[in-house]
Amino acid sequence: MRTGQDYLTGLKDGRTIIVDGEAVHDVAAHPAFAPIATTIGELFDLAADPAQGMTATAPETGARTNRINIIPRSREDLAGFRHTAEAWARHTHGWVGRSPDHVAAFVNGFAAHPEAFAAGDRDLSANVLAYHRRMQTENPYVSYAIIPPQVSRATTAHAWDGDFVQVGVTEERSDGIVVRGAQMLATGGPVADEILVSCIKPLTDDDADFALSFVVPVATEGLKLYCRRPFAPAATSSYDYPLTSRYDETDALLVFDDVFVPWEKVLVFRDVAGLRRQFFDTGAHVLGNWQAQIRFAVKLQFIAGLARKVAAVNGVDRFPGVVEKLGELAALTSVVESAVLAAEYTAADDGSGLWLPGKRAVYGAMGLQAELYPRALAILRDLVGGGVLQVPSGVADMRNPETRADIDRYIQSPSAPAEERVKLFKLVWDAVGSEFAGRHHQYEMFYAGAPFVVKGYAFRNYGFDGPLAEVDAFLGSYGVDTP
Ligand SMILES: Cc1cc2nc3c(=O)[nH]c(=O)nc-3n(C[C@H](O)[C@H](O)[C@H](O)COP(=O)(O)OP(=O)(O)OC[C@H]3O[C@@H](n4cnc5c(N)ncnc54)[C@H](O)[C@@H]3O)c2cc1C
After folding, report:
1. CA–centroid distance, residue 369 to ligand 1 (Å)
2. Which residue's alpha carbon is at the smallest distance from atom 42 of ligand 1?
């Protein structure tokens, strides 16, 4: 199995990652990326440890692979995926959104339905199967960029001023295609091995040039990744910023300057309908978003734990009003925990032998995420009060004996000496108030699509026929002449 060291060594590949106007030459050694690369490496080490039970034999190859690459053919396979995804999420307490299991879950769906990639002008199903086999044998960390740049949402790419703002095909060759343009955001892209580039937002028939799916190694000639401001370098210490200093997975805009993509890496080509088929006719979208809810449940548990601890340290945890707030947080968390399990309980064969988690439960939880996460943060903020600001500026104040004396005296609690109390409140700040926290707020609201899009999934997958029939039957059971 691939180890963390294998993964870290693979990052020295000449990729073009741009931060503050300069290309980063060795991401694994750069302060912006080394922390998250180390964390991802730990995930690989965890999976490679036989004691964790995170591997299985791939039926397609007979080789051992990470369970995240197994196409679920039974409820037990789904449980195996959940255990692995949960073990990884627990390692990062849910603060790494695009761990390798996210895109792997999508690719499992793709490979379970290769026919979805054969219905366009070109049959690309063999490429999809080969890609999945490669995932099983090489266990790469794949990120994805499936949203067009935010130029204007009033129209789609063909109508934008200037050719190929959204990545599109400029040349078709016998050995592959040439692509140019950008795609909005690849979380984890700078430290991923490869990126799946596609488009999940609906396009029109005039957008055929942009109707592509392909996979590229991050180190591909002509591919540049423009990173948002990395937060990890500003983390003055792990004591001051315990989350930022470990889990800052940089989001990056992808720019393709006439990048050559060989045919074997192309999954959808000039096929507007094919873009939708790959996500929604294969089960990929539900599998990938189930992974996201597994991770989200773990993160909410961590936030609930923080709130409970803060309330105890501040000695307010027995006040009825505080219990009510903690109760609400418990309820919010258990809604997502329950949806994850309900999705597994209501899982079914999609008719092809692929087992899919129940869509009603997956999309139900997802549909609430844009309200649920801000609400959880609001409760935590409420409970910490000014405690997150009544902390010394940095760990140096704790190390200096002169300032430490004041801190020990004035920033303590009966159950927590200053060092523990400050540590806890700095962790809470990193969860609710730092730049890292702000980015996470945005992430949970948007990573699976804007809230109106995600609620659309909940609407379409709820199954209103039953409730409607029930209402109609009830309405039919009485009338003006009924006594
Ligand atoms: C932190 C973070 C990480 C991300 N990581 C990834 C990643 O790894 N890979 C990836 O592919 N993408 C990623 N994304 C992008 C994400 O998928 C998009 O943000 C999401 O799909 C929404 O698209 P948008 O941001 O362009 O918002 P828009 O579509 O522009 O929507 C913004 C707002 O405009 C309004 N609006 C827009 N269109 C309509 C409409 N038709 N009807 C009604 N209201 C409308 C709504 O209020 C909406 O909330 C990430 C985003 C964030 C914030």
Report:
1. 14
2. 452
Give the helix/strand (H/E) hosting 53. none
User: Six-digit token pair at 137?
Assistant: 């044998």
The length of the chain in residues reads: 483
Q: Would the CB of 184 count as within 6 Å of ligand 1?
A: yes
From the number of C-beta atoms within 10 Å of its C-beta (0-12, 13-18, 19+), residue 38 rates as middle
Model pTM score: 0.97
Cβ(251) to ligand 1 under 6 A? yes
Calpha distance 189→13 (Å, rounded)? 14
- HSE at residue 272, side-chain half, CA atoms within 13 A, is 11
What 8-state DSSP symbol labels residue 230? P
Quick: pLDDT tens for 146-196: 999 999 999 999 999 888 999 999 999 999 999 999 999 999 999 999 999
| DSSP bridge partners of 212 | 269
Model pLDDT for residues 86-123, shown as the tens digit of each residue: 999 999 999 999 999 999 999 999 999 999 999 989 99
Give the closest residue to 142 by CA, choosing from 176, 186, 109, 204. 186
Q: What are phi and psi of 474, to 5 degrees?
A: -65, -45
Instruction: Map tokens 């996201």 to a residue.
Output: 292
Rounded Cα distance, 275 and 204, in Å: 11
Buried b (16+ CB within 10 A) or exposed e, 438-462: ebbeebbbbbbbeeeebbebbeebe
Atom of ligand 1 at shortest distance to CA of 450? Answer: 22
Which of 187, 229, 436, 459 to probe ligand 1 with, by most ligand atoms within 8 A of CB?
187
